Amino acid sequence: MIYFAHRGASAEAVQNTVPAFRRAQALGASYYELDVHLTQDGVLVVHHDYSLLSTAGADVQIKNLTFGELQMYPLQNAFNDERVFVPRLKDVLPVIASGLETVNIELKNDGNVYGGLEEKLLALLQNDFPKILPQTLCSSFDYGTLVRLRALYKNARIGLLTRAFDVSAAQTLGAESVHLNHTRFTPQIARACREHGLKIYLYTVNDMEQAARLAEEGADGIFTDKIGMFL
């Protein structure tokens, strides 16, 4: 069973921030999950939502802010008094590089809202983090994003992030895995994935007994906020 640190050690630090990934690394994580967006001035940043409303209390869209402007919005921190901000992807990757097996980068690009996001991500990995590129598994709910990624880089590792399981969609992409909400998972889906050489990873699981049951039913891995509990 593989355990992905979901947005870092997000039960112990502000999700998708450098402290969250630093904590996950200290706990022994070797598999990580994070989300990327693109600022107005073309900087890849790590954050879950398109806006800062739920994380900084500001109803502003990342696409409309430069990276410098983004740093004017401290994220809400319920864990300690440290001021934390939306980080650049280039600041997160060195934190998790040691002992890294796989980093699952979810491209937040519904409707191609960030034109050129795929090119930007590949350029950063190829130019600045060539050793991490083979360890990068890219996923997205936006199918077109994954199609563009595959066209740009034939060796891209792709995970089909979906709300409706479709093995043919994964095969068309040349995906290596399917990522699914654990509530939609069934042993039948696990068997279908296995028959077609696909791994099945489930989100978001924070309970040991539930994880054990999902493993027995055929899940290959889970995304968890409580990475320390599983490691």
Q: Would you write up a description of this structure?
A:
This protein is of the alpha/beta class and 231 residues long. The chain has one domain (2-230): Phosphatidylinositol (PI) phosphodiesterase (TIM Barrel, Alpha-Beta Barrel). 33% of the residues lie in helices and 23% in strands. The chain contains 10 helices and 11 strands. It has helices spanning 18-26, 53-56, 67-70, 89-96, 117-128, 143-152, 167-173, 187-195, 208-216, 227-230; strands spanning 2-6, 31-38, 44-46, 51-52, 58-61, 102-107, 136-140, 157-161, 177-181, 199-203, 221-224. An 8-stranded parallel β-barrel has the order 1-2-6-7-8-9-10-11. The model has no long low-confidence stretch (mean pLDDT 98).
List keywords for this structure.
10 helices, alpha/beta, 231 residues, two-stranded antiparallel sheet, 11 strands, TIM Barrel
Short structural summary:
With 231 residues, the protein is of the alpha/beta class.
CATH topology: TIM Barrel
Radius of gyration from the CA trace? 17 Å
| Residue share in helix | 25-40%
Number of domains: 1
The share of residues in extended strands comes to 15-25%
Report strand order across the widest sheet: 1-2-6-7-8-9-10-11
Overall mean pLDDT score?
98
CATH class term: Alpha Beta
Number of strands: 11
Count of helical stretches:
10
